[in-house]
Structures are given as structure tokens and as C-alpha cells.
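Bench notes, afternoon.
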Amino acid sequence: MSAYPIDEIRKQFPALGRTYDGKPVVFLDGPGGSQVVKGAIDAMVAYMANGNANLDGQFPTSREEAMIRESREAVAWTAKH
């Protein structure tokens, strides 16, 4: 096994398993169209399937929206420091 497990990493990106005419597909993506890791796809599907809501309400989906906002703020803070 190499120091960098590229095969294991590639398995996390569903699109990289595609084939065309029996051959693996090659993606030459730029920043506007890069492939998405399965964990992120699963998180987006779960979010959409379980409902989203307006911020600042007193129901569970509103509190979950607040958590998303707080996460974005934490990432932005980390990027600045």
C-alpha cells in the first residue's frame, strides 16, 4: 500500500466509478464543476429529505438551520486565521 491511498479516496467519489463504452470516464473539471464526495452527497440528500426551514423559528428544523449558519461562520473564521 502506498503512503497515499488513492484508490480508497477515489471510491469516495461516486462519479469516478462511471464508464463510457466500457472505459473509465475521465473528468477534467475546473473549480466550477468538481466532483462531490459521497459523504457530502448523503448530507445534502438527508437535509433536503428531512426538511429545511426559515431561521430563528422555534421548531427543530429552524434550530438545524441555525446550526448550518453557525458552521459556516466557524469555517469562515478558520479560513481567516
